[in-house]
Amino acid sequence: MPKINTNPKNINELLTRGVEEIIVKKELEEKLKSGQPLNIKLGIDPSRPDLHLGHSVVLKKLKEFQNLGHHIILIIGDFTGMIGDPSGKSKTRPALSKEEVLKNAKTYFDQAGKILDLKKTEVRYNSTWFAAMGWEDVLKLASKFTVARIIERDEFSQRLKNGTDIAISEIMYPIMQAYDSVEIKADVELGGTDQKFNMLAGRELQKKMNMRPQNVLTVHLLVGLDGTQKMSKSLDNYIGVTENPNSMFGKIMSIPDSLIFNYFTLLTDSTTEELEKIKADLNPLSGGPKINPRDMKARLAKEIIAFYHSKKDAEAAEQEFNKIFRDKELPTEIPEIKLAEKSLPVLDLLVKTKLASSKSEAKRLVEGKAVEIAGKVILDWKAAIEIKNGMVIKAGKRKFAKIVI
Amino acid sequence: MPKINTNPKNINELLTRGVEEIIVKKELEEKLKSGQPLNIKLGIDPSRPDLHLGHSVVLKKLKEFQNLGHHIILIIGDFTGMIGDPSGKSKTRPALSKEEVLKNAKTYFDQAGKILDLKKTEVRYNSTWFAAMGWEDVLKLASKFTVARIIERDEFSQRLKNGTDIAISEIMYPIMQAYDSVEIKADVELGGTDQKFNMLAGRELQKKMNMRPQNVLTVHLLVGLDGTQKMSKSLDNYIGVTENPNSMFGKIMSIPDSLIFNYFTLLTDSTTEELEKIKADLNPLSGGPKINPRDMKARLAKEIIAFYHSKKDAEAAEQEFNKIFRDKELPTEIPEIKLAEKSLPVLDLLVKTKLASSKSEAKRLVEGKAVEIAGKVILDWKAAIEIKNGMVIKAGKRKFAKIVI
């Protein structure tokens, strides 16, 4: 049996930092103080294997439980993943093949392993229990929940109000997710605020099945690089956990100052004391920031890169960033693109060099005066560009390409 | 392939007599006229095997389909019967053992065989398909129905309004019943008005599974002997299909005149012409009943007894009835009860002779001046009665006992 750390300071940090809500906090505190190892559950959707820093918040919280000696269990929703949503109403539930699920799970672990100690982490596939269940089991489970209770869920009550139909199959998913908690005897379940309803269903089901109910811990959602919306891939305001150091550095330097403290809290291992100092240093009430926010962002970026890559990578990324932006030099390495054409319309050139993903994006870049060719800003999106060997093209702040003919 | 009767007169009779509603009548008419044999479904609840004349209405309608050459399929809900309602919310869904289900089904067939030709009737147990289904199948089925559609059902919307919880398992039953129709490729489903929702769910599911949708035919509910409420065992206003001829005769003679025509329509094989004549004979607008309603009831009783027993039994029952009520004689056979006591309080005597089921019922009978002992009406419920050999006790109109000491 692992030795459990019951240090009140550690427990307090675990239950406050980055935490949105705990149901029920007093109960969880007692479990943590008891010195018994707890089963800590995180459910994983195998249809979205790519992790960004938004996902790291909950994984870092899991790591804190792991550090105290508790037992982490990742539930891969492979069964529901393979079924998908037969009604086709939910975009987040495409049906996946067994191979896709396993491939996605591997991708997930490769990334989660940067945060969690995977050797001490248990992984369970929920097909293990669901594949063996029949109508009778389904009805028994379903009998533990009422229609009123399930359609209370924000998403459902909203849809009923809007007159958007809810397939009966959709209301079965929270029940299945709840049953995962019963199967693994979860003591605590972690997740984002959007998962609160499902996690509480797990707590209720455990009670009804005469099991000690799990506590539910929700973490803060991470705001994306734009400073307003939740970090997500679809909004393109994210930093992937496998992104290269230069890209991470550049993106963190671009965040609004108002996010600095939040990112330190949710994404770094700074201690409570360090966080208090950062807060004071950034506080305008104490006579304006004592430290230039730019320097604070550089420190933040280096801490994050050191975590996901290495300290050396962090230093190198800072130097590269300074070379380009502070000293206005070209980056050390610019991707070279071989072209056969003698001349190209500027939009085609940007797409061919992969500086823009489409002509319309290319046009937007030109119109935003963000395109420089051989040191000259291009103003006309209909311009034809003469191709020359060694010509450097810059699009936006951090994207470069060099032509070879 | 059986020869199908497509005679328009027969089809018209089939679709009107005792019929409450048909969805969609035109569609069903076309199916019947096509000359193709149709699958006619009736679902049976194996928890209630005892049939009374109220149940006979739908069975007689099935028999009419059978007479035209169509294929009758009785679905025994053994699977749901064995599960019962795990939430314990539905009183009509006790969990039954396999043996109970089979025993009840046998009892049902023994009785239904008085109406249907069982040699031409197919019986299917729904465990055949449900026992083999898993979560994936359940979710696929459930995806065909929406929450809004299911809670539309009168019973459910009523309960939601009253704040009475509905277990999620309960909303699965209509889905299962609907799937029965898919499995047996039903062309028509018959049932009482209270089954309309579930039958329509079957129609919808067939459509969604690209099958020709079944038509739904509901029959009139039979009013009980009291002339006001639905015939049911719990209201004790019923005639069982296995009841003895004397009891059937007496009960039918007791119905209010207003029920006579309705009972002829729903419970006998009278032709349309005969029914019209009965209606005219009973019509007060044509100068009051041309025939004494008492004689009409006797004819009704004899027709029903001839159907469930024999013509001879019907005649005998009439004679017995007349002997007791018209000629005020004692019935031919009176149950004999052996008693050792010399004297008994009247209430105990009535209970011991099984003429009353409890002392309070006995007291009510005495107070209603319905108790005669040795030809004398008993007026005092505290009276002590001296027991004599051969003494006849009468309670109510048709219950007798003879004492032997």
Explain what the structure shows.
Two copies of one chain form a homodimer. In chain A, the strands form three sheets. Chain A has a six-stranded mixed sheet with strand order 1-6-5-2-3-4, with helices on both faces. In chain A, strands 7-13-12-9-10 form a five-stranded mixed sheet, with no helix packed on it. Chain A has 405 residues and is α/β, with parallel strands linked by helices. In chain A, α3 links the parallel β2 and β3 (71-76). The termini of chain A are far apart. Chain A contains 18 helices and 13 strands. Helices cover 46% and strands 14% of the residues of chain A. Chain A is globular, with a radius of gyration of 25 Å. Chains A and B meet through α7, α8 and α10 of A and α7, α8 and α10 of B.
Provide a quick synopsis of the model.
Chain A has 405 residues and is of the alpha/beta class. The first copy, chain A, has 18 helices and 13 strands.
Q: Biggest interface: chains and residue counts?
A: A-B, 38 and 38 residues
Beta-strand percent range of chain A: 5-15%
| Largest sheet: spatial strand order of chain A | 1-6-5-2-3-4
What's the number of extended β-strand segments of chain A?
13
Radius of gyration of chain A: 25 Å
Distance between the amino and carboxyl termini of chain A: 65 Å
Oligomeric state as shown: homodimer
What is the molecular shape of chain A?
globular
What's the overall average pLDDT of chain A, rounded? 86
Q: What structural class do the secondary elements of chain A suggest?
A: alpha/beta
Which segments of chain A are poorly predicted (pLDDT under 50) over 5 or more consecutive residues?
Answer: none
Helix content of chain A: 40-55%
Number of distinct helices of chain A: 18
**How would you sum up the major sheet of chain A?**
6 strands, mixed
